[in-house]
Design goal:
This protein is of the alpha/beta class. The protein contains eleven helices and twelve strands. It has two domains: 119 residues, NAD(P)-binding Rossmann-like Domain (Rossmann fold, 3-Layer(aba) Sandwich), CATH 3.40.50.720; 178 residues, NAD(P)-binding Rossmann-like Domain (Rossmann fold).
Length: 326
């Protein structure tokens, strides 16, 4: 089979142990994103199977309609808001999914960003590398208030890590989050406004859904302290478009640490956050570590192996009537 893997940013998929499951096929990988839809179609048009790495490609109806040879779209992960499932079903393209949703890697990155940003590690390390004198004083972490917006699997691990650093944990979110906070002995904020006003560090761990898109707005950010840090390792779309950039320019919050952006990937240093000393940016690394990749890609490649043998698939669109393989 012809298998295409677009947007293998780290260009390391072939180094995973689980790659042995598909190595015998004709596999083509691309590291750089396609410049436009036409180039993307050119890359994918002859594929029997396309591997979708999270939300790196927008598998719209306009794209899928131009891939008449595609027999399977294999997701790395459980779901994707960058995929038109209805279009795939209409066109007879099965979409296989994963089952795992490990919170460990994104929680670790969140904590790393908190420590690195509060102690000015990145900026001072770069100044030292450039032979410059230090020029900042950082903020103590122990005794400060860690606000958690959404105490789900990731938020719970971030809260646990924050508590281990001596931070006071303050939680807001849906009913389940508040109940979990009480059970864990964390303080529950009186309201969302209270969370934003009191947090020295605020980490958002809300799942992106239609009802949570833009759940953080300009008024929320304006309530934050001028010394506070806003951390987002979840989804950029949880914040109203442009709201955080404007808030940072106004000084509330005073700092941000970001792993997600409204348009990805960010290339060529072309983003206003990268020009701001008070913002620490990483290129969507929340899930990108060896154990996580082995977990997610193995589930994906096992589905491709099952498809090759005519076995049952774990489908995100079970109503699909698949195209013929021949």
């Amino acid at each position: 089979m012809k298998i295409v893997i677009p947007d293998d940013y780290q260009y390391m998929v072939d180094q995973l142990d689980c790659y042995s499951l598909i190595r015998h096929h004709e596999v083509t990988r691309y590291r750089e994103p396609a410049r436009d839809l036409d180039q993307l179609v050119e890359r994918l048009k002859d594929a029997d199977v396309v591997v979708s790495i999270r939300e790196r490609v927008d598998f719209s109806r306009a794209l899928l309609e131009r891939l008449p040879k595609l027999k399977l779209l294999a997701l790395v992960g459980r779901n994707s808001h960058m995929l038109d499932f209805n279009a795939a079903t209409d066109l007879g393209i099965p979409v296989s999914t994963g089952v795992s949703n490990s919170p460990v890697a994104p929680a670790e990155l969140t904590l790393a960003l908190i420590v690195a940003s509060r102690r000015n590690i990145a900026i001072e390390a770069e100044r030292m590398r450039a032979g410059k004198w230090p020029f900042t004083l950082s903020h103590r972490i122990r005794g400060s208030t860690l606000g958690i917006f959404g105490l789900g699997h990731i938020g719970a691990l971030v809260a646990e890590g924050g508590k281990g650093l001596g931070m006071k944990v303050l939680v807001w979110g849906q009913k389940n989050s508040l109940e979990k906070a009480v059970a864990a002995g964390y303080e529950v904020a009186k309201s969302k406004a209270d969370l934003f006003e009191r947090s020295d560090v605020l980490s958002i761990s809300v799942r992106l859904r239609p009802e949570t898109r833009g759940i953080v707005g300009p008024d929320d950010l304006a309530r934050m302290k001028p010394t506070a840090l806003f951390v987002n390792v979840a989804r950029a779309e949880l914040v109203a478009p442009g709201a955080l950039l404007e808030a940072l320019k106004k000084g509330r919050p005073g700092y941000a640490a970001m792993d997600v952006y409204e348009e990805e990937p960010v290339t060529g240093g072309n983003h206003p956050y990268l020009k701001m000393d008070n913002v620490l940016c990483t290129p969507h690394l929340g899930w990108a570590e060896w154990d996580n990749f082995e977990l997610y890609f193995r589930e994906c490649f096992e589905q491709i192996a099952a498809f090759e043998k005519g076995g049952p698939l774990r489908l995100g669109n079970p109503a699909v009537k698949p195209r013929a393989k021949a």
